[in-house]
Amino acid sequence: MSTAILAPGSRGRRLSKRLLQVVITLFGLLLLTFTIGRVMPIDPVLAIVGPDADQSTYQQVYQQLGFDKSLTTQFGIYFVNLLHGDLGNALLTGKPVVDDIIRVFPATMELATMAIIVGAGLGIPLGVLAAARRNSVSDYVVRIISLAGYSTPIFWVGMMGLLVFYAWLGWVGGAGRVDLGLDGVVPRRTG
To answer: What's the CA angle centered on 121, arms 156 and 180, to 5 degrees?
Structure first.
């Protein structure tokens, strides 16, 4: 029975191939993020202790972070910590990365939800229009708009949106995330 599951062309064989691809891809991503963290032109120890720290403090933090160990040992520690949900501390805030993620997660969900609503609200009617009037001027306009939308970097779209709808038209608020009832009462901040 077990040989039938992994027979060539069987569903089990295809599933096991896909699972192996997922494992290899995740390992590659982990290796890439680990490598990026090690080749960045910033000294994480110096970012933590500050430029005025003495050599003994620097050396102590260097050893606490495990930089005195081999790269393979560092990667092993990195992998085990990830499995336990320990993403380390953020260099900018000094707090655990998980705490920083939890703090900004609601804003991320709001942004993603609004993007889905706007995308579906525009995409579905425009797709229906293009399908109903195939090879017409409106079909070509919808194709051009969708191609431009897919190929334009999202950060540029965001900056242009702020320029047009905030700076020029004044239709939306600026940077920051504040409930409408508290706008003007509390200082604006992102996240």
So the answer is: 70
Q: Is residue 123 part of a domain?
A: no
* Cα 51 to chain centroid, rounded: 30
Position 186 in a domain: no
Cβ neighbors of 80 (< 8 A, separation 6 or more) are none
Is 51 contained in some domain? yes
Task: For residue 30, tell me if it sits in a domain.
Answer: yes
pLDDT per residue as tens, the chain (191 positions): 556 666 677 888 899 999 999 999 999 999 999 999 889 888 888 888 888 999 999 999 999 989 999 999 999 999 999 999 999 888 777 789 999 999 889 888 988 999 899 999 999 999 999 999 999 999 999 999 999 988 999 889 888 988 898 888 888 776 666 555 545 554 555 44
Residue span of the structural domain in which 52 resides: 2-93
- Specify the length of the chain in residues: 191
Q: What is the 8-class DSSP label of residue 90?
A: -
The residue type found at 137 is: V
- How many domains are there within the chain? 1
